[in-house]
Amino acid sequence: MGFLLVQALGGLAAGSVLFLVASGLSLIFGVTRIVNFAHGSFTMLGAYLAWSLTERLGQAGWPGGAAGFLLAALAAALVVGLLGALMERLLLRRLYRSPELFPLLATFGVVLVLQDATLALWGPEDLLGRRPPGLSGTVVLLGWPFPVYDLVLIALGPLVLGLLWLLLHRSRWGTRVRAATQDREMTAILGIDQNRLFCGVLMLGSALAGLGGALQVPREALTLHMGLSTVVEAFAVVVIGGMGSIPGAFLAALLIGELQAFGILLFPHITLVLVFLVMAAVLVIRPHGLLGRATGAGRSGEGGVAEPLRPAGPVATTLGLALIAALATAPFWTGDYGLIVLTDLAILALFAAGLHFLIGVAGLISFGHAAYFGLGAYGAALATHHLALPMMPALAAGMLAAAAGATLFGWFCVRRSGVYLAMLSLAGAEITGSAAMQWTDVTGGDNGILGIWPDSWAASRAGFYWLTLVLATTGVLALRRLAFAPFGTALRAARDSERRATSIGIPVRRLHWLCFIVAGTAAGLAGGLQTFATGSVFPTVLGVTTSVDGLVMVLLGGLGSLAGPLVGAAAFQGLKGEIMRETDLWQLWLGLTIIALVLACPRGLTGFARDLTGWWRTGGWQTDGWPTGGGR
Amino acid sequence: MTGRSPAPAGLPAPEPALEVESLDAWYGGARILTGVTFHVAAGEVVALLGRNGAGKTTTLRTVFGLGPRRRGRLRFFGRDLTACPPHRIAHRGLGYVPEDRRLFADLTVAENLEMGRLPPRPDRPPWTPARLFALFPNLGARATGLAGRLSGGEQQMLALARALMGNPLVLMLDEPSEGLAPRLVQTVAQILRELRSQGVGVLLAEQSLSLAEAVADRAYIIEKGEIRHHAPMATLSADPAARRTWLAV
Amino acid sequence: MMTGEPAPLLRVRGLVKAFGGLRAVAGVDFDATAGRMVALIGPNGAGKSTCFNLLGGQLRADGGSARLDGVELLGQSPQQIWRRGVGRTFQIAAAFGSLSVVENVQLVLLSARRRLLGVWRPAAACHRDQAMAVLAAVGLADQAGRTCATLSYGDLKRLELAQALAHRPRLLLMDEPTAGMAPAERQALMALVRELVTGLALAVLFTEHDMDVVFGHADRVVVLDHGQVIADGTPAAVRAAPRVRAVYLGTAA
């Protein structure tokens, strides 16, 4: 009994911290409609800052005791809040008019920058924080010891909820925030400066993230990975609670806290999976989360009409053929290293092309395309390892596994839209990733599966390169064909106007489902090739990073052209390669480059190229109206 | 019937408040407004008439700097508005009640009014919730209720009251009579007359003639994104041929 | 032209739909006949849109029947109803903005023939001649290659008509077909609709606020008020009915 109580209280304490982080995220999304990937990095930064401050305090013999510690935590939160405001001013402010995915890409750039900045400032080792005097002891509850510090956290959650409620409901600023959550444009019509409002919201939300991080210091080791894992978990909380609902976030955070506290007893290996299973279940039953409303979280279409896809003209066709010819002869003009790079590039291009089919053609945003890449990679590896299949059937097995995964997860995903769809797809990837990690007997767990090499006929560098090139080119061309075929045309129609598509008998949901399967299969082939290219597969292939890499490639290239993902893959891999060769802090520079590219060409590289040619032809572009976002 | 291009009013215009000249706007590649030119003086009610889809809403949104790309000259009491973001336009004294009311449904009636509050203008009494509740007793009775729970007519009243809280010098209204019972249309007409007597300029975008006939001094007729006709309201009312051609009523 | 009244294609009897306690449609009867145009008019809130949405399957009826050539429509999904030969245009025209005009029509033909899952032949090459013929019928042939997002509103209305006609419906539901159009455009569009009605033996049911369009083009006018039919007959008879004048025409003009 006492054990259960202590376990439950521990869950509440964890839930409280999670609530702080998630409430900030929810607030920011509610008002700005920006999916802020950097939120978790702010939590991380808050934790590291607080760690440094408490170290100093500890060395000075804890002046002020517990109050000193809390002040340090608040100071860390304040610094992080200011950083959030800075990010709004310098970056997000320029992106409110672009489609909702571009701010997301920009914030991912910030994630990379902060990751490496933290690495440079605090080093790669995990850090353990001190407990302040007065908060370091334990109390005994029904015969079981329980940390005093956790009791403080339990009290803090409702306290912050109450303060936020007062701020939002009893202050002029709070009323504005709530109004802007419902209809941003109308607040501008009434004379409210959105930039200032958004800046304030970013500051408050980021400060909450920082505070959440700072308060973690006495409880958990700080790692450089906590940024991404925190934001994923916080997103799950926000989605379960309902986007933009603070009480919803509170409820969901406590739910998740308890779920993990008890889940770890019952299913020690799959606590993260539990979170996502709960999220999927909640979304199936309550489409807008526990306390959410139907506002916002729409499709990406806010940026206006999608650009038309144009079949390749004679020039583009010639260029394409020349490129294929050049690539086909690569073994004659480049060495081993060049072939490795080109093999990787072909694989990434296929992966990105599949994701673009989902995002660009059908308008379905996936945060979890890693699931199908990983299923393909593991499918091929397991077929070789356990069934001793030759390479080609193993690749087919990988594609089949990816298609099966996409069939299963896609069925859930296509029942929702916008951010909810994206989060469900992420859930798919996280669940698959945990399975790969935990099902050690089959997958080898963390150790992965090693020694998966191509069959002898393709064992040479050139041989495997040619095989990859043929398969990837076939895949990309097939996707291209599909985009112009009735199937792809119907998908584009449904993206332009779902209601109208339904009215002419287009079974939109079924087409979306099929689209998931097609995109997943392409990713599966890419994953299988990757396994044979590197000779191994590890659970990291299923991580958020893989999904986000795909998103970055697709968005860098631009959504409006089928060449976009190919250009994006080349640019991404080129950048990464170049930067990694020059510096250890490659994430920092990659992040900065992504941010610069998002600011310079918000329609992607191919869109930028089209703007340039358009500018060349017409001799100027017209000035845009004032950015308002126009979201409701 | 006057000529195709906008003709001068024939009425003495006291002080030009809102001046719009050769306004073009595009949505994507399509031009949706072409050379729209009109003005509203302080203390006059001007109607912008036209059918559904003629360009009334687009005109108002474009003037306010919302949405479409635009080109042209916009002046407010002589000062240029083209580079002015919407919130600053509001502070200068241009009010706007959009077509679908756009209330904050999850905020209370009183909170909706507070959202509209801007500093008072010199030489005229500021609008306060108390004054507005006296004008719209229904709203006063529901001050602490959620705006989303109001009836259609009450919502329209609240949208108007919220815009008045900004103490506008010129007020643009998009279809304020839509969906209102005749008695409420009379109330709206009454308020517009009162605003006019206080020297506020009013631009009234309407599809139906009844409210415009009751209060407007002049009228512009817009069609396919162009101003096609301009006349004193009385002239237009007395000219069934013009009404039939432009408005088909 | 026609001798006697042929059997009606659409037979609506006792149609009922309530929202909460309000009976928006309270036992409505009317018919629509092939080759004829029926106007459904009435003041705002009379139940016109509700009737349309019931017939199109967007709303579920609480009672009554609507038979198309003897087949019950009520209770079927919008897609089933569409496949049974009921086309529809909407009050606010919209199209698939990033596709070309002719692709918009080709897609309807592909959908009608259940070929949306085609993966090989480009959609732009499928049923092109037929799509062009439909575009020619509505006078849009010269715009076929344009991207829809750049069409004028009048052309968008025509495109919508083309999309509705492409799968050869027997009954066409048109919600305010001329809303937002100039008078000359209105007359041209309605003349076009009349041509198509006669040529294709189509039954048209339309709502409209413009009384010139209603009385100039409808063969039969059904007047709704508070969810009930208060008049049903030829335009001349309806125009003369005192009750109609009282509730509708008197206040509209």
Key traits:
heterotrimer; A: 632 residues; mainly alpha; 2 domains; 26 helices; globular; C: 253 residues; alpha/beta; Rossmann fold; six-stranded mixed sheet; 10 strands
Written overview of the protein:
The complex is a heterotrimer of chains A (632), B (249) and C (253). By secondary structure, chain A is mainly alpha-helical. Chain A has 26 helices and four strands. Chain A has helices spanning 2-32, 39-59, 65-90, 101-122, 148-170, 172-182, 184-189, 194-216, 226-241, 246-266, 271-285, 314-328, 330-333, 336-361, 370-387, 391-413, 418-438, 440-443, 461-484, 486-496, 498-503, 508-534, 544-557, 564-582, 586-600, 604-618; strands spanning 138-141, 144-147, 449-450, 536-537. In chain A, helix 5 (148-170) packs across helix 6 (172-182), helix 15 (370-387) packs parallel to helix 17 (418-438) and helix 19 (461-484) packs across helix 20. Chain B is globular and about 45 Å long. Residues 1-13 of chain B have low confidence and may be disordered. Chain B has a domain at 1-93 and 170-177 and 202-249: Rossmann fold. In chain B, strand 7, helix 7 and strand 8 (201-206) form a beta-alpha-beta unit. Chain C is an alpha/beta fold and 253 residues long. Chain C folds into two domains: 10-94 and 152-158 and 172-252, Rossmann fold (3-Layer(aba) Sandwich), CATH 3.40.50.300; 96-150, no CATH class. Helices cover 37% and strands 24% of the residues of chain C. Chain C contains nine helices and ten strands. Chain C has helices spanning 48-56, 78-83, 101-112, 128-138, 153-166, 183-200, 211-217, 235-240, 242-252, and strands at residues 10-19, 22-32, 37-41, 63-68, 71-72, 86-89, 171-175, 203-207, 220-225, 228-233. Chain C is globular. The interface between A and C is medium-sized, with 30 and 36 residues.
Topology summary:
The complex is a heterotrimer of chains A (632), B (249) and C (253).
Chain A: H1 2-32, H2 39-59, H3 65-90, H4 101-122, E1 138-141, E2 144-147, H5 148-170, H6 172-182, H7 184-189, H8 194-216, H9 226-241, H10 246-266, H11 271-285, H12 314-328, H13 330-333, H14 336-361, H15 370-387, H16 391-413, H17 418-438, H18 440-443, E3 449-450, H19 461-484, H20 486-496, H21 498-503, H22 508-534, E4 536-537, H23 544-557, H24 564-582, H25 586-600, H26 604-618
Antiparallel strand pairs in A: 1-2, 3-4
Chain B: E1 16-27, E2 30-41, E3 45-49, H1 56-63, E4 69-76, E5 79-80, H2 86-92, E6 94-97, H3 109-116, H4 129-135, H5 137-141, H6 152-164, E7 170-174, H7 182-197, E8 201-206, H8 209-215, E9 218-223, E10 226-232, H9 233-237, H10 240-247
Parallel strand pairs in B: 3-8, 3-9, 6-7, 7-8
Antiparallel strand pairs in B: 1-2, 1-4, 4-5, 9-10
Helix pairs in contact in B: 3-6
Chain C: E1 10-19, E2 22-32, E3 37-41, H1 48-56, E4 63-68, E5 71-72, H2 78-83, E6 86-89, H3 101-112, H4 128-138, H5 153-166, E7 171-175, H6 183-200, E8 203-207, H7 211-217, E9 220-225, E10 228-233, H8 235-240, H9 242-252
Parallel strand pairs in C: 3-8, 3-9, 6-7, 7-8
Antiparallel strand pairs in C: 1-2, 1-4, 4-5, 9-10
Helix pairs in contact in C: 3-4, 3-5, 4-5
